[in-house]
Automatic annotation (TrEMBL):
A single BP term in Gene Ontology: methylation
Residues annotated as signal peptide: none
InterPro entries given in the database record: SAM-dependent_MTases_sf
Protein name stated in the entry: 2-polyprenyl-3-methyl-5-hydroxy-6-metoxy-1, 4-benzoquinol methylase
Amino acid sequence: MSHTCPLCASDNFADFHQDKRRRYFRCGHCFLVFVDPASFLSADEEKAIYQQHENSPDDVGYRQFLSRIAEPLHKCMPSAQSGLDFGCGPGPTLSLMLEDKGHSVALYDPFFVPDGAALNKTYDFVTCTEAIEHFHYPKREWGQLISLIKPGGWLALMTKLVKDAEAFSRWHYKNDPTHVSFFSRETFRFLADRDGLDVDFVGNDVILLRKKTA
Ligand SMILES: [Zn+2]
């Protein structure tokens, strides 16, 4: 077990929950809930699980799920913009939905579209849906997300949010072994304040952040 929070590097964290498989901690500074790195899957094990996900652009239910982020993000943008879908997975779909609305969207995924060149640019918007809960090194990966966004640009996230320890103990979301970093409203408020972002919780699991211009 490392001795600092993997998101904010504080050493102020404590046990939060324990189940049959894993031990969970919560940071007292940024309120991230995280697992003991000893329970991380290997990259091969992780990829094998993602390949079983049956998300595809032909799935009407998946499109409806993603419309909860595509619609509010599109409304924020007055004209066609260029973006990146970070963590697009094996069946990129949100990118197609935003392209249907006139935007252009590049793809990056560490397992399925490992195009490092996509990370050497900046964008008007970055989307990251059902992906940040998989971050093993959220300090580095969050920093990377923020660095990809132009001043005044948008970061649109989907991830389910931690409420409290009691709800956490009954939460199916924690049982996915690829889920290792659990964010809450408090965590996003901390990050927004620290990193110069405005944050808007537009749904239970939909978060829109905007990088301030100055
Ligand atoms: Zn922390």
